[in-house]
Amino acid sequence: MTAIAGDPTRTLFAVPGMRCAGCIAKLESGLAPVPGIASARVNFTARQVAIDHAPGLQLPDLQAAIAKLGFEAQPIQGNAPAPSESRDLLKATAVAGFASMNVMLLSVSVWSGAAGATRDLFHLLSALIAIPTVAYSGRPFFKSAWAALSHGRTNMDVPISIGVLLVTALSLFETLTSGAHAYFDGAVMLLFFLLVGRVLDSVMRDRARDGVAALLKQTAPGALTLKPDGTTEWRAADTLAPGMRMIVAAGERLAADGVVEAGASSLDLALLTGESAPQPVGEGAKVHAGTLNLDAPLTVRITAAGPDTAIADIARLMEQAGQARSRYVRIADRAARLYAPAVHTLALLSFFGWMLAGAGWHHSLLIAAAVLIITCPCALGLAVPAAQIVAAGTLMRSGVLIKDGSALERLAEVDRALFDKTGTLTLGRPQPVDLDRLRPVMKPAVLALAQGSRHPLSAALRTALEQQGVTPAPVEQIREEPGFGMRGRYLGAPVSLGRPGADEADSQMAVAFTMDGLEPCLLHFEDAIRPGTGATLARLDRLGIRGSIASGDRAESVAPVAQALNLAAQTDMRPEDKLAAIGSLAATGAKVLMVGDGLNDGPALAAGHASMAPASASDVGQTAADAVFMGDSLAPIATTIMVARRTMRIVRQNFAIAISYNMVAIPLALLGLVTPLVAALAMSGSSIIVVGNALRLRRVPQ
Amino acid sequence: MNGLALLIPLALLLGLSGLVAFFWALGSGQFDDMEGAALRILVDDAPAPPENPLG
């Protein structure tokens, strides 16, 4: 630990690469001794590290310190994520659990025959425990019910709130007038079971949110700006302004839109347009934030920063597109729309029925309350979240992260799929196709050259050669020549790995390896289709989901993929066009599943009825998608749809169980036969059956 | 009845202390990093500085 002057600043980094206990130790003990860092604390669940450091330390310094330990880190900017509601719900559940256990303890003695003063005392004690509990643990329901009622709508929380309040008030009256039955145990137990459902729902949302937050990468946290006096200063992205000049090193992302003032390089536009081939830029070329500078340093005069960049435009488009989805009504609320009026009518009818039959208002009210508490959707409140959290757990084990329960409901409904090409159907990274043209003796030299560069083609060569077990040869004087590639000396002769000469170049991505006295060897690359894509498409077909391609890439590069997979394709699509394509499909009644990865797919991902993105996707893609799947294969898409559909089947079964239980219980309640004991048994019995049924989802479908 | 006068408050108090302990644990962030907590047991403690080598 290093002593620092002044108040330490806290910066959060997402470190997706940490996998084990060793990483925790390495990060925490490795960062602590760095000058200026007071302490570092890892949150493994969220894959984040929080660093307390001297205010003078800049983001790149901290990032470099983490990189030195062997981890890639991305700063998480903005304020810490909003505190989740899980914690409040958990507290409410704990209180309700405590209360229901203690009230039950007292109730059991009443049921087993306590009478007279003892019964009154026990009822009074129950009231003392139950009333504060209802006031505290009931708040989430009261709030939501009030919000719905004040908008003139009704939801599941309205019958719950009315039921709990009415039952508590009546039981209090009974207690004070030495009545025989008090339903305090029913009221708090109901709250407890329902809160468990809420906690499950909220935990599921949090888990996915943390997972995505850990992968959430800033486009570029900032840039090195060139001041008029020639000195440089690192500025955060939100403090950049038009007119400034920034220096973008090779391998860095641009933090703002601008015009190239000096330098020539090529840019990777995949994030913005989905195009896989790098695009050369020179002086005077317009460049956009979010693109990756590949070859050589560029000096860029900023023309638009922050909210004015092309990237921010896409973000706005996405926000608009997402609004349709927020209008989706979840199945529990759809059920409540039918259920709540029915329950209230029934309770009201039973009250008037017994009044007409001549049973005083007190007795009639008691029966009405019994009807409310017995019909209170205890099993209904658990039916959906229990099934969904088990399904989300199952999917997580097969490598799919679901954002929330509503995503599962929407995924179950899709009947049409649109795929992006680059990075979705394909791996999104070039792979050497004709490595065999390289003579085995030359491979070590090529590997040594490729290791010196961060260019995507070099990286691809390096991975492929290392997989073949090649070890690098001692190549001397390795240097990177901007705009060309790598040069060095091997066995005394000059060697190079770089851009092919004009006469050898063809339409494909390629590099040339040359060695003095030898014929130059041209190596081609292509963006390979993900493994198992054909099988996944066939499985989706069997599930009744027809797919097609919607790509931002040119027709020539889409055609081979479309032919190989036998899919219809639309090409040259801007983000707006993809949005329009989804809109027109939706207008014909199709429920579209959008699968994409790039920033350019963001609006389409937000607009689709449901959407999925690979874990290699841009953060925008991951944020917009309902589900993120890990690994190279597309197979999780079909698995997810199958699990989602099975979940909805289980949810419907659970509804059926809850309703058939009501069929038996309601007549009993109407006849005034439901004592607190019967209510308690019925409530816990139906909840256990529903949860047990949901647990059947733990099996992963093949 | 005398036994009840003692046992009921005692039972409530025990339950309540459990509840308070849970609230405290929640508030002090013990549930913030469930996976990490499981792994930290495997992390070797950094060698403590020898403050008093003679014991």
From TrEMBL, chain A:
Classification via PROSITE patterns: ATPASE_E1_E2, HMA_1, HMA_2
Top-level division of the source organism's lineage: Bacteria
Compartments in which it is found: Cell membrane
GO molecular function annotation: ATP binding; ATP hydrolysis activity; copper ion binding; P-type divalent copper transporter activity
EC nos: 3.6.3.3
Lineage: Bacteria, Pseudomonadati, Pseudomonadota, Alphaproteobacteria, Sphingomonadales
Protein name: Cadmium-translocating P-type ATPase
Keywords: ATP-binding, Cell membrane, Hydrolase, Ion transport, Magnesium, Membrane, Metal-binding, Nucleotide-binding, Phosphoprotein, Translocase, Transmembrane, Transmembrane helix, Transport
Keyword Magnesium annotated: yes
Species the sequence originates in: Sphingomonas horti
Transmembrane segments: 94-115, 121-138, 158-176, 182-200, 338-359, 365-387, 655-671, 677-695
Chain ranges of the HMA domain: 9-74
Chief subcellular location: membrane
InterPro entries: ATPase_P-typ_cyto_dom_N, ATPase_P-typ_P_site, ATPase_P-typ_TM_dom_sf, ATPase_P-typ_transduc_dom_A_sf, ATPase_P-type_domA, HAD-like_sf, HAD_sf, Heavy-metal-associated_CS
GO biological process, one term: copper ion homeostasis
GO cellular component terms attached to this protein's record: plasma membrane
Pfam families: E1-E2_ATPase, HMA, Hydrolase
The family this protein is said to belong to: Belongs to the cation transport ATPase (P-type) (TC 3.A.3) family. Type IB subfamily.
Membrane topology of the entry: Multi-pass membrane protein
CDD domains: HMA (cd00371)
UniProtKB/TrEMBL annotation, chain B:
Name of the protein: Cbb3-type cytochrome oxidase assembly protein CcoS
Organism: Sphingomonas horti
